[in-house]
Design a protein that fits this description.
The strands form 2 sheets. A 3-stranded antiparallel β-sheet has the order 1-2-3. A hairpin with a 6-residue loop joins strand 1 and strand 2. 48% of the residues lie in helices and 6% in strands. It has 18 helices and 6 strands. The longest helix has 26 residues, at 167-192. It has helices spanning 44-50, 86-92, 95-104, 110-121, 131-134, 143-153, 167-192, 206-215, 226-238, 246-256, 261-272, 280-291, 297-305, 326-341, 348-361, 364-368, 375-385, 393-414, and strands spanning 14-19, 26-32, 40-41, 70-73, 78-81, 84-85. Helix 6 runs antiparallel to helix 11. The protein is mainly alpha-helical. The structure holds s-citryldethia Coenzyme A. Residues 58, 242, 245, 276-278, 280, 304, 307, 312-320, 369, 371, 374-376 line the site of s-citryldethia Coenzyme A. The site of s-citryldethia Coenzyme A has 23 residues, from helix 17.
Length: 441
């Protein structure tokens, strides 16, 4: 695909003309073709040549960058990572292979895969002094608060991988973050339940290691369930990257100022925490528990439809997907089999969620607004069955999304047209006015 960046010359195929009906001035703007998805109009000259800014709260119609990593077709419910469909990756790949794909752009051969796994394995331990951070938190601290703090503090320990202009240091920082997120996440969980931390082990796979550090105790060796390990690995794959979502855009914006990668990922974790974004998986479980039974579904659907009621159907709706989120479809399909394999014969919350989905899908309010289940609607039910407390759900999302954040951050740093992000505004405040002394107010 021809890069549209000026450094290599934009391949301008078409233009659109903008005419200012006040001044009569017109301006031709280049239109770039994507390999998949909408064309984009390059508006960079609009302000310079016509003194007009564009206005797009929430960036609903704005392409913030050029990217080759992930493609989403919201109408068709398509999600591709470097061209590979999420359904294929969830079924046939594993999380570390998807990490390699997102970072390097192609699926690894056997030698590359083994080498990458070994590299990540060698970075799973954290600096021993990082353990002392945890004792500064209350035991009931939300684990996302711990993640924001401890991941940001990695900047204080790994100085030899903070020079963003050194490609080798960028890759080392990426490997460190992917490798250490499970260790830090497990430590946050162990701290919250008053159990000792476990060190990572080099003889476990990435996801087995995470489950080992999370659910095992030093005084006994409990075998890692292969079913649980496969289920978690699939959930990590489904959460790995998702184009320019809120937290990824936060990481790109933080990175555009030259901040070090650990600080950038900490900013992504903070943004993901919000219930409108990654915090939704925790909010879905809380909502299902609040609804409690099928006979209360109509009452809550009514609340969700009432514009004066702040209640929203958590796990429903999406800025881009105006059809079924393909990740939700994979999770829904596997929920039954995973719960069954985990020995959860009867999960009333899953039945409640499926009934809620059925009724909502028949309701014209949801149909008119194309509100379908998103990735968070079913993920929480599976995570709960695996034994994680609800407060850890978004931590697991952050663990998986770290590779997506890092891949997008690297792409931004290496983009020839990259510059510090600095949006403008529509100012509607007061015009200049004289200062009024206190005794005259
Ligand atoms: C993630 O961007 C990504 O890719 C994110 C993500 C990723 O992988 O990174 O996919 C992960 O964040 C998934 C989304 C998780 N969030 C939730 O499940 C929270 C509930 N969903 C909503 O808050 C909402 O749907 C958003 C935030 C997800 C999307 O909001 P938009 O695109 O800004 O849509 P909107 O608020 O403009 O809503 C359009 C209409 C409004 O009604 P009207 O004003 O037109 O009458 O739909 C209504 C909204 O009130 N609406 C909902 C609703 N979501 C939208 N009404 C009830 N329940 C909902 N869930």
């Amino acid at each position: 695909m021809e890069k549209v960046s000026e450094a290599v010359g934009a391949v301008v195929r078409e233009t659109i003309t903008v005419t200012d009906n006040v001044t009569g001035k017109s301006l031709e703007l280049p239109v770039f073709h994507a390999t998949e998805g909408p064309r984009v109009a390059d508006i960079r000259r609009l302000y310079r040549d016509m003194g007009i800014l564009t206005y797009d709260p929430g960036f609903t119609s704005t392409a913030s960058c050029e990217s080759e990593i992930t493609f989403i077709d919201g109408d068709e419910g398509v999600l591709l990572h470097r061209g590979y469909a999420i359904e294929d990756l969830a079924e046939k790949s594993d999380f570390l292979e998807v990490c390699y794909l997102l970072l390097y752009g192609s699926l690894p051969n056997a030698a590359e895969k083994a080498d990458f796994e070994q590299t990540i394995t060698m970075h799973t331990m954290v600096h021993e002094q990082m353990r002392t951070f945890f004792s500064g938190f209350r035991r009931d601290a939300h684990p996302m608060a711990i993640m924001v703090g401890v991941v940001g503090a990695m900047s204080a320990f790994y100085h030899d991988s903070t020079d963003i202009h050194d490609p080798h240091q960028r890759m080392v920082a990426s490997h460190r973050l992917i490798a250490k997120m499970p260790t830090i996440a497990a430590m946050a969980y162990k701290y919250s339940i008053g159990q000792p931390f476990l060190y990572p082990r080099n003889d476990y796979s990435y996801t087995e290691n995470f489950l080992h550090m999370t659910f095992e105790v030093p005084c006994a060796d409990k075998p890692i369930s292969p079913v649980l390990s496969r289920a978690m690995d699939r959930i990590f794959i489904l959460h790995a990257d998702h184009e320019q979502n809120a937290s990824t855009s936060t990481v790109r914006l933080a990175g555009s100022s030259g901040a070090n990668p650990f600080a950038c990922i900490a900013s992504g974790i903070a943004s993901l925490w919000g219930p409108a974004h990654g915090g939704a998986n925790e909010a879905v479980l809380n909502m299902l528990n609040e609804i409690g039974s099928k006979d209360r579904i109509p009452e809550y659907l009514q609340k969700a439809k009432d514009q004066n009621d702040p209640f929203r159907l958590m796990g429903f709706g999406h800025r881009v997907y105006k059809s079924y989120d393909p990740r939700a479809a994979v999770l829904k399909k596997s929920a039954d089999e995973v719960l069954d394999e985990l020995g959860v014969r009867h999960e009333p919350l899953l039945e409640l969620a499926m009934e809620l989905e059925r009724i909502a899908q028949e309701d014209e309010y949801f149909q008119d607004r194309k509100l379908f289940p998103n990735v968070d609607f079913y993920s929480g039910i599976i995570l709960r069955a695996t034994g994680f407390p609800v407060s850890m759900f978004t931590v697991l999302f952050a663990l998986a999304r770290t590779v997506g954040w890092i891949a997008q951050w690297m792409e931004m740093i290496e983009d020839p047209v990259q510059k510090i992000g600095r949006p403008r505004q529509l100012y509607t405040g007061k015009r200049r006015r004289p200062y009024v002394p206190l005794d005259q107010r």
